[in-house]
Design brief:
This protein has about 150 residues and is an alpha+beta fold. It has three helices and four strands.
């Protein structure tokens, strides 16, 4: 509620007066450039990772057109802070991979690929996640259970 100091008043006025220029800001949000040819291949690449501070993922769309030109666009990224309750890095890596799968599914439902076959690629540097997914000899306990499934196991 105090008045702005004189030395900041000029900067404040410049910033406030510049707000009207925001209508001229144009950010292209289309994931396919205008001059890009007919898409023949559409792929989503999902990267996940974790650390002691948090975990996250990012998803990119990779398009190849009829003249073999390639274009990549960031679709979405999401991060989470590590829970206060101690949790192991392997479990955090699994959480990051699970987040990638959920976001990949959501993106495919939300985006319209007009009859294109869409391939998903999931990338991780975690040997624990890769081992968990490729182990066919032993099935593991449910890692994440939806609240609707509780009580049925």
């Amino acid at each position: 509620d105090d008045p702005l100091p004189d030395k900041l008043h000029a900067r404040w006025d410049d910033w406030r007066n510049g707000l009207k220029d925001l209508v001229m800001v144009n950010i292209q949000r289309c994931v396919k450039p205008r001059d890009f040819g007919a898409v023949k291949v559409a792929e989503m690449h999902h990267f996940s990772d974790a650390s002691t501070s948090g975990y996250g993922q990012c998803s990119f769309l990779r398009l190849i057109d009829d003249s073999d030109q390639v274009h990549c666009s960031l679709l979405m990224g999401k991060s989470r802070v590590t829970p206060l309750k101690p949790i192991t890095i392997p479990r955090l890596e699994l959480s990051a991979a699970l987040l990638s799968v959920k976001i990949g599914s959501s993106l495919e439902q939300e985006l319209d690929f007009k009859g294109l076959s869409l391939s998903h690629f999931y990338w991780t540097d975690s040997k624990v996640v890769l081992g968990y997914l490729s182990n066919e000899a032993r099935r593991f306990h449910v890692f994440i259970q939806d609240s609707a499934d509780k009580g049925s196991h």
